[in-house]
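Sequence, structure tokens quoted for completeness.
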Amino acid sequence: MLRNSVTRNLISRALRLGFKYGERVPAALYKMSSSAPLSFKSDPVTVAALKLGRLNHVAIATPNLQEATMMYRDILGANVSNAEDLPDHGVTTVFVDLGNTKIELLHPLGNKSPIQNFLDKNKAGGIHHICIEVDNIYAAVESLKSSGKIRVLDPKPKIGAHGKPVVFLHPKDCGGVLLELEQA
């Protein structure tokens, strides 16, 4: 079977690290973005501090919060929360309960909303970020900062929509995905 050079390099790297041929290799072993500052290697300190938990929500930016809320509630039959303004984050949110996780509908609030910037580029809206829970957000932030491998967008956690501390990680360091970490 022919393999491209990236696959051959990944296989040889995994074998050098003690993995057996055919064994699953953690995604952290390969560089996720060409613009990432450093290639990823398994770092026990960072891994222990992060302890990624469950998917908390997928956030979708929408130009019309009422229409999006009605679609999930009235057409798809989901339970939805009331709209909540979060001035510190420049958004209005509505949560759609899916049982095992949630969808967070995001709408711009104020002139400096990051969601408005997103909607200016994506007129119909779309997936903005995903949120994953961590056991200790403060330890996770310190570990990420000291590793220098993934940039944290905020110098310290802010209180998010669930009343818990959150931080965002730079999408260029996370495979093109804006990640939000939330205290479990």
Residues 32 and 175 are 5 Å apart (CA to CA).
